[in-house]
Amino acid sequence: MRLILEIWERRQTLPAAFVVAALVGCAAPTASPPLTAEPPSPDTLGPSAAARRHMVVAANPYAAEAGLSVLNAGGSALDAAIAAQLVLNLVEPQSSGIGGGAFIMHYRASDGAVEAYDGRETAPAALDAGPFLTSAGKPRAFNDVVAGGLSVGVPGLVRVLELAHRDHGRMPWAALFEPAIRLAETGFPVSPRLHQTIAGDRHLNRLPAARGYFFGRDRKPLPIGRMLRNPAFAATLRLIAEQGPGAFYEGPIARDIVAAVRGSRVNPGVMAAADLAGYRAVKREPVCAPYRVWQVCGMPPPSSGGIAVAQVLGILQHFSYDARSAVPSPSFAHFLAEAERLAFADRAQYVGDSDFVPVPVQALVEPRYLAERARLVSPTRAMGVAKAGDPLGAKASTFAPDLHEGGVSTTHISVVDGDGNAVSMTSTIESAFGSRLMVRGFLLNNQMTDFTIQARGAPAVANAVGPRKRPRSSMAPTLAFRDGKLVLVIGSPGGSRIIGYVAQAVVASLEGDFAMASAVAQPHVLNRNGRTELEEGTGLDGLAHALRELGHEVEMTEMTSGLHGIRVRDVVLDGAADPRREGVAAGN
Ligand code: DON
């Protein structure tokens, strides 16, 4: 513990590195040497980094440093992920935190075990679709329901960290809270991205607690570089550190969550104390499927991420294309878009919370089924809107489009420790600043808007809202293996685009054999069973033309992924953070 604190002290020189990392923001893929923190040390930290012992990649330098300090002190990959996550809650509050949920994929090197931990939010027992409908029975707009208590699901993060820590933690639970508590007390500079996200949000200043924290006395968004302290959050973390995870789910913190949700002036909700007291994180069977010479493992329902990524890769492997091109080649872009259409059609048809609706998980990633789906892809013509397949000969639900797509929040942490254990964890409070309700220094999620809300009387869907149900997610924390050896740890934020971001980066990293920095920076091509989206501002005009010739309806759009990955290459860990956000890789 003392060691962590000493290292953390030393890292108080970090703002220099932070500013550099923040300023490189959207620079081209880095070929430059990793940044090193001062004073000189064997640690490396930068948008990309190479390390021999261990590494953590996270969305903010303070978080990556907290994770690295834990690894340097002998902590496990899971310990490092917890420390990094708690710091992210503080410095990247728009994206994730204890008021939200997460999925964790864990790899244990000693016996090759791959495990999936589900900390998804659940619907309160008294929640139904009613409040999400207008008086005419039509779904209310996302922007009308996102802020306030209605959208808040029972947070799962603390319980899932506890569950995974029981299995894989090496350091004491309370020690992992120290970096975040210290930083909350001493303060941290508001990052450019946090500033922009505050300035761009239209709900945040409607909710008094959030308004008081994220805006200055002049009522303006906190400027870049303003030192921000959060003593309320430090006190919250201290309670959970000292008394254990139960202190979040029962007692004063839980009481304040319920009061904020039910008492919200904007969209009051129905969460009760019993919802929090009854929350359970769940260990589930990971979804693993072959992709050429690799085995790729991801999160099962309630996330659609693992199934969809496996489907995209399992369909792609039936085609040949140039995966070595730094900018996606027309052949790769076409097959990728077609594979994604098919995966999104199945996602919308079949995937919901498998504790409530039957989801044919294994059948959906079966190589024979994916070979059948691949036969629907023409090399010379876009297929238009794909229909769901029939993996079992029995359809679980009717096709329903998502309520909303994309987004600027959510976060991904990748870690590999000195024993070769790995954590791939995607964590979220859903949209930027979640429900915008702030309690004791942290924000509550708006995850209930991830349910598919249909007009009254419309056919049932797998992802319909229901009491205690978990809404379908797209989060895709991923692990990949070759001959049983870990080769890749990766994931991203991005709403339903996560699936495409991750699938493309897996291809770029493994099949394209790109350095991690180039794999995560590759311009995006994505299809969610509609238009083929190309990342604007990345010089893809030629590709757009080629795809239009094949019949794709092409749209250029902003695509702010936050891919954070580690490629394990023999003795070297090659890590990188997405240049579109503020993350860094930190290793030793
Ligand atoms: O669980 C999901 O799939 C979404 N709630 C994630 C939201 C997200 O990634 C927003 N943005 N970047």
Notable characteristics:
588 residues; alpha+beta; Serum Albumin, Chain A, Domain 1; 2 domains; 8-stranded antiparallel beta sheet; 7-stranded antiparallel beta sheet; 20 helices; 22 strands; globular; disordered N terminus; binds 6-diazenyl-5-OXO-L-norleucine
Structure commentary:
By secondary structure, the chain is an alpha+beta fold. It folds into 2 domains: 28-39 and 70-282 and 412-450, no CATH class; 290-380 and 473-587, Gamma-glutamyltranspeptidase, large (L) subunit, C-terminal domain (Serum Albumin, Chain A, Domain 1, Orthogonal Bundle), CATH 1.10.246. It is built from 20 helices and 22 strands. It has an 8-stranded antiparallel sheet. A hairpin with a 5-residue loop joins strand 11 (411-416) and strand 12. Helix 14 (305-316) crosses helix 17 (367-374). The longest helix has 21 residues, at 330-350. Mean pLDDT is 92; it is low at 1-41. Bound molecules: 6-diazenyl-5-OXO-L-norleucine. Residues 407-410, 428, 430, 450, 473-475, 493-495, 498 line the site of 6-diazenyl-5-OXO-L-norleucine.
Based on secondary structure, the structural category is alpha+beta
**Helicity, as a percent range:** 25-40%
The spatial strand order of the largest sheet comes to 1-22-3-11-12-4-5-8
Total strands: the figure is 22
Q: Low-confidence stretches at least 5 residues in length (pLDDT < 50)?
A: 1-41
